[in-house]
Amino acid sequence: MLIPHPLLGPRDAQEFTYLGDAALLNRPEGGDEAAFHAYTHLRDNPAGPHRELWYHEQGDRSWLVVTRDTATHEIVAAELAMDVKGAAR
Amino acid sequence: MTRIPGGLVDRSRTLSFTFDGTRYEGHPGDTLASALMANGVRLVGRSFKYHRPRGIFSAGSEEPNALVTLRSGARAEPNTRATCVELYDGLAATSQNRWPCLDFDALAVNDIASPFLAAGFYYKTFMWPKPFWEKLYEPLIRRAAGLGALGRDPDPDAYDKGFLHCDLLVIGGGAAGLAAALTAGRAGASVILADEDFRLGGRLLMESHLLDDGPAAAWVAAAEADLDTMPNVRILRRTTVFGSYDHGIFGAIERVGDHLPRPETVRQTLWRITARHSILAAGATERHIPFADNDRPGILLGGALRAYVNRWGVTPQARDSDRVAIFTDNDDGHRTAADLVARGVPVLAVIDPRRDARRFGEYQLFSGATVTGSTGRRSLTSIEITRDGRSDVLECAVLGVSGGWNPNVHLASHHRGRPQWSQAHQAFLPPADLPPGMAVAGAAAGHGSPHAALRSGAQTAARLLDCSAALLPHAEDAPLCQLPLWHVPGRGRAWVDFQSDVTVKDIALAHRENMRSVEHLKRWTTLGMATDQGKTANVTALGVMAELTGASVAQTGTTVFRPPYTPVALAALGGGDSGMTFRPTRLTPTHGFAVAHGARLVEAGQWMRAQMFPRAGETHWRDTVDREVMAVRAGVGLCDVTTLGKIDVQGADAGAFLDRIYCNAMASLRVGKVRYGLMLREDGFAYDDGTCARLADTHYVVTTTTANAGLVYSRMEFARQCLWPDLDVQLISTTDAWAQIAVAGPKSRALLERVVDGFDMSNAAVPFMSCAALTVCGGVRARLFRISFSGELAYEIAVPARYGNALMARLADLGQDLGVTPYGTEALSVLRIEKGHAAAAELNGQTTAQMVGMGRMVSTRKDSIGAVMSRRKGLVSDTRRLVGLRAIDPAARIPAGAHLFAQGAARVTATDQGWVTSACWSPHLKTPIALGFLADGAERMGETIVAANPLEGDEVTLTVTSPHFIDPEGDRLRG
Amino acid sequence: MQFNGLRLLWEGLTGHKGWGPLWRDPDPKPEYDILVVGGGGHGLATAYYLASIFGQARVAVLEKGWLGSGNIGRNTTIIRSNYLLPGNEPFYEFSMKLWEGLEQEFNFNAMVSQRGILNLCHSDGQRDAFRRRGNAMLLAGADAELLDRDGVRAMYPYLNFANARFPIKGGLLQRRAGTARHDGVAWGYARGADRKGVDIIQNCEVTGFRIDGGAVRGVETTRGYIGAKKVGVAVAGSTGRVMAHAGMRLPIESHVLQAFVSEGLKPIIDGVITFGAGHFYVSQSDKGGLVFGGDIDGYNSYAQRGNLPAVEDVAECGMAILPALGRARLLRSWGGTTDMSMDGSPIIDATPVQGLYLNAGWCYGGFKATPASGYAFAHLLATGRPHDTATAFRLDRFARGCPIDENGAGAQPNLH
């Protein structure tokens, strides 16, 4: 796969490591165990567009939010996780 | 000899080769198959199941029969298709799957037993008596199965891997591929043209077509010369594009040295090609027509027969006088007959089931007739033809069979698009949902005539690149009309899949047993599972099944194709990264010192670390380790600890950030101080530990374990970028930037005083758990950490990595009078077990802070990763604790990995109370000691328990103690 | 119709005219007592045991495609019970015991072949971990042996002992482990279940659950509504998709695992070998193909196909441990969708919807579990209680903090 890095252009996916659903950006605040359980363990796991976290480990070490279709592997967007997080506030 | 004039072989030179030990001759330009044919060799192999005699069936990579073992010894290459082997001088090939020899194969008895070996027979028997399966039946089956034999010696050849990028990848260098490459090349696009053959041209080389009134081969040569002048075009000959992967990435294997007696550089190269666009121009594969006993040597595909005549100037006759017949259900077979006649090969008859079939030349035509049988023990001697219920026998030695052409859609379907049945073509065409960026041209898209193939190649490239199509030569444009005869009905066995020995009867049986869906059919009969992947069988089998069910072929469906297109050597896929280069090797900064001092090295992940430093006279590894341990306890030792991960954390919010990373507090750490830190995973389990040193208000240095250095760093970047981007903090890994040496033992201060540049080393100035920046050895920048893994007075000193080896040597030199001793990872481990420090075996991802005795470190006054989840009931209620374990008998051995039981308890899962994590002989205590997790461990100090190791048949009685075997009050390390 | 050698002889002599369909193709009835969603190995085994052990007569299996088309149709056929944790090991050992009598029980030769599995270790730490695991296996009634380097060499002299980046230190051997013919297992269970009256309905995709008052009443399918008192879902790989119809988010991600087979070769590898310094395992089928695989690609996927880096990694690892493999050729590769759970272990449990039960989360290891999974799921469906060996596979274990994490990798599926 090729990941369209927002700063570096298309990069081979082999340069990246994968974490999972970008919902992991939304860490709960406070001490609610149930909220943390859902955050840590439960996933939408869609067959279709999926926003997910990739880490450019053998590159610029940025974390990206990549929107990729899990049925076709087509990538429609890649953003810096810091930007996504910034926009969310 | 059955050479005829003409063809694209260089008769001015002769190459010598052997097959089953017999010496033969061929010419440059031959394949092994054409050269065998030229020497009149007709029997070349045996089928998989029935060990039927088999000859050359095709002229390409679809070959099901002519499999040989090429070369010998460690270079032996089993199951090699003779049709794809470029002849070289000295080539040695042997037949396979026969015993004792190809002519007399003992397992040909299977053919006599074939009535009992129908599709799926093994699922129905071999079940009684039960033990016989593994003792008798299966070993017999395994011995009989398989094809060629793999050598047991390491592959001696070299392999390589590379990356290529292009605007357009053209797969296949036939008419369509050449036209596409010319179009794109002239438009200035970067083009890669890959073809599996050693010569460009594809079917153009095998036909008698004229292009612009000249031979096709001449046009091919001109086109090739044209492409060679274009710097933007790269031609990869002998290169098979075997898979289409995501985002325009293709895998390809270039056979760099396979056509040479010995590879000059590498044998094969794996290319990962990233292409903006691709054109699949892989041509088509001919179908055969199953009839009774259609598998004898001498029976081959009509298009292959034509190819051997036209390209290689050779026929499959044993003698010039042998007669040739053609069985065809379409005009293509007549083209073969016409070409043969034109080249002076006697064509006895063309048998064509179409009543309105017409002749293309001077030969006898049996229209409305079929071939219904054949004879000939080891090769064809006669065929039976049947017309209107009347049968005749024709003596002939060669039969070309033409059942129409199947487009090679494989790569177009690698993204799981299903090929579509075309009623007009009577064949499967590429799917509508092609891999992104791909287009299909030429015969692969159903454009089979030379004119149509050339035009479709050029126009497809022009469309993809938005440029004008290349000028093309005039060529014949007679579209092929196919009306397939899927098989000739009859009582004999009619082979569909030659290599797997799947006959029409097997398909009928699958139908009867409700194995009708394509996948069930395939799996029940093993159709298409052989090394040819069913290239000549699968579509025909679908046609037969469709007839049986009464459904159309379209309704019967097709299977999807998966990589690789043709089989690929595993060594090539590995790209040469084997042996010592399997993974990178990381050397510590003091590697030179270690080697010079006779260190034994050990793998620690990618690192090579000094395991111990044996001295003359030490006969057992423990002599060495005990000495090194006692040197640290009594004097001073040196150990390279560079491999521990080091992460620089800087910024105004560095403390706040680390507070969230570690379960214990770090923001409150004062400048110049060091604190032990424990990280949890978000699910609350213990993750990694290390030290956290505050060098300045906005500057921390943290360490991680060796194993987790990269992981912890990425996790900290995740926290910084994804969780708390508002914090003013920056991270950088400095593991490789700083060499770090542990200087441990009561005399460590005395030793370090000799290297520091006037720095006050007193206990008051550098107390336990403090740190400082300083210079050593006359101006070398350094960092000093007073931390201890051994429980002794100890320091770690870091210098820029390039000074590490020199510092180590200087310390070893200056400390001779102090008894300074370099020590390795074994002694390091014994020292930490004696002190009761948790390491990888205790922090194995399954344990909690509470279990390792650090439950109270998890701060409840702040949020940190894993803090909330560590309070879950399941974690909190776990009573297992890290304990010390001391053997009652000093002569006993405590095996790490033994399980712990109360005395007298049954040794079963239900009464299992824990396990030994780490164990060693303690030279300090003169007894075996261990660490382990024990249920209710905190309340069981002094209890006698048992460590059971049924795996090796031993048990040891232990006393439960504190894990701190040495200096539990910590006087030594604070001294 | 009973299968045996005599019958085969008779049919061979008479042209194989007497064989009938291995199973019927019935139309769905309006209602069943128990519906099993998923006609893969686990679903078919569940139906088989429901009918044969638990006396359930009105059972149907609903399969979206052709029976056996799930991961039972694409895996590396390994059976073993070499687990560490008490939540797992007794279950897998139960499965192994079921494998040992399976073929005689369902009268179908699934080629269960106990030629052993050897896990190689390459460091002292790994050997200590193997000792812990081997002892756990013995304590649970399974078999295990710890081999040193010479012991490994005696079994497989052509492994890389000469030039290895990570030298072989020894191995953990389970002799009762081995392989089984994966399709044969599906067909054996399907035929066995069919013979006991279970309706196996192919080409019938579940498109929704009818849930009323917190209880399941039946399922909507592409062949119409089918009522049921209980519904068991065993669709590993598609669990997320199917359970989304019931509005459930699960501790599961779908990932792609590729597997590979070489051209047919004369016997060279007798049992199963796993590499300990990389992801690679290999065995050789009775037909002669080397069957091998490695790590998952590592990203969420339902595409049933993977990419080159994982292929290359597997080949590198294979060459690193078995340098003679180089001249063998990869013949076919395929990609299966696996349910990667958050702790690497499966789920066999009731769901919050009354009457709706879930069998899922098998990661890349569901094949070996097929018999026990079917048995335990049938037990749960029939009695409402978990089977003795499957009490840890609860859906709420993640919330409670009782994961069954063999690798200690935590809640990140692509690390298991």
From TrEMBL, chain A:
InterPro entries the UniProt entry points to: SoxD, SoxD_sf
GO biological process: tetrahydrofolate metabolic process
Single GO MF annotation: sarcosine oxidase activity
Gene3D superfamilies per the UniProt record, alphabetical: Folate-binding superfamily (3.30.2270.10)
Descriptive protein name: Heterotetrameric sarcosine oxidase delta subunit
Superkingdom classification of source: Bacteria
Lineage: Bacteria, Pseudomonadati, Pseudomonadota, Alphaproteobacteria, Rhodobacterales
TrEMBL record, chain B:
SoxA A3 domain span: 492-576
Pfam families: FAD_oxidored, Fer2_4, GCV_T, GCV_T_C, SO_alpha_A3
Annotated GCVT N-terminal domain residues: 591-862
Keyword Oxidoreductase on entry: yes
All residue ranges annotated as the Aminomethyltransferase C-terminal domain in the record: 880-967
Signal peptide: none
InterPro entries for the chain: 2Fe-2S-bd_N, FAD/NAD-bd_sf, GcvT/YgfZ/DmdA, GcvT/YgfZ_C, GcvT_C, GCVT_N, Sarcosine_oxidase_asu, SoxA_A3
Keywords linked to the UniProt accession: Oxidoreductase
Gene Ontology MF terms in the entry: sarcosine oxidase activity
Keyword Hydrolase included in the entry's annotation: no
Domain of life: Bacteria
GO biological process, one term: tetrahydrofolate metabolic process
Family: Belongs to the GcvT family.
NCBIfam families: soxA
PANTHER family xref list: AMINOMETHYLTRANSFERASE (PTHR43757), AMINOMETHYLTRANSFERASE, MITOCHONDRIAL (PTHR43757:SF2)
Protein name as annotated: Heterotetrameric sarcosine oxidase alpha subunit
Source organism of the structure: Salipiger aestuarii
TrEMBL record, chain C:
Lineage: Bacteria, Pseudomonadati, Pseudomonadota, Alphaproteobacteria, Rhodobacterales
InterPro entries, sorted: FAD-dep_OxRdtase, FAD/NAD-bd_sf, SoxB
Keywords: Cytoplasm, Nucleotide-binding, Oxidoreductase
Molecular function (Gene Ontology), one example: nucleotide binding
Domain FAD dependent oxidoreductase: 33-380
Gene Ontology biological-process annotations: tetrahydrofolate metabolic process
Protein name: N-methylglutamate dehydrogenase subunit A
Presence of the UniProt keyword rRNA-binding in the record: no
Membrane spanning residue stretches: none
Domain of life: Bacteria
Nucleotide-binding among keywords: yes
Compartment(s) where it occurs, according to its Swiss-Prot or TrEMBL record: Cytoplasm
A Gene Ontology term for the protein's cellular component: cytoplasm
Signal peptide segment: none
